[in-house]
Amino acid sequence: MGSHLERMRSLLDSAAPAVLSTSRKDGSVKLSPVWFRHKRDHFEVVITDDDVKLKHIRRDPRVTLVIFETVPPFRGVIVTDVAEITAEALDETRRAISSRYLDDAASAAFTKAREGNGSVVRIPDRSARSWELGGITGT
Fold first, then answer.
1. C-alpha distances in Å from residue 57, one per residue of 24, 49, 70, 103, 120
2. In the sheet that 119-124 helps form, which strands lie side by side, from edge to edge?
3. β-pairing, 84-86 with 119-124?
4. pTM to 2 decimals?
5. How far apart are alpha carbons 19 and 30 in whole angstroms?
6. Max Cα separation, the chain?
7. CA 85 to chain centre
8. Per-domain residue ranges for the chain?
């Protein structure tokens, strides 16, 4: 992981908002809020089987993930790369990601209700760029 991502560790470990960009068949962009986690050298998002985002990625695996915070110092990370789709450790990954956003009971229920449904989308972090607007805002 690059040093710029290491400086963003607290953001990447938080329940920060994230947006995933996929491409429709006609080339237009679909933006979707997602939950994520950063693991070693990639980002992970879990998408259910019936979600159109998964269909988009299977057809065109080029995606962009934007992670950001809504409070000072307004840091963020953006990564654009070719996503990999796998079913490996699906439920374990879903539980790990959902537990970042939900309490333990809600995360367990969320995971159980979706057990076996979906894929893990992995996005390499090699092209990730980060920003911090604290200097602009005086924070």
1. 9, 12, 28, 30, 11
2. 37-39, 42-47, 119-124, 84-86
3. antiparallel
4. 0.92
5. 10
6. 47
7. 13
8. 3-87+119-133
Cβ pair 63, 57 in contact under 8 A: yes
Both tokens assigned to 33: 């809020």
Rounded CA separation 11/40 (Å) = 15
Give the position of tokens 């998002």: 45
Positive or negative, the CA dihedral 105, 108, 17, 29 is: negative
The length of the chain in residues reads 139
Which 3 state secondary structure label does DSSP give 10? helix
Taking alpha carbons only, the member of 91, 96, 90 closest to residue 112 is 91
In the three-class reduction of DSSP (H, G, I as helix; E, B as strand; rest coil), residue 72 is classed as coil
Structure tokens at 72: 């000072």
* Mean pLDDT computed over every residue of the chain: 94
46 backbone dihedrals φ, ψ, rounded to 5°: -105, 130
pLDDT digits (tens, 9 = 90+) for 53-81: 999 999 999 999 999 999 989 999 999 99
E-strand stretches of 24-126: 29-34, 37-39, 42-47, 62-68, 75-82, 84-86, 119-124
Q: What is the model's pLDDT at position 51?
A: 97
CATH class of 3-87+119-133: mainly beta
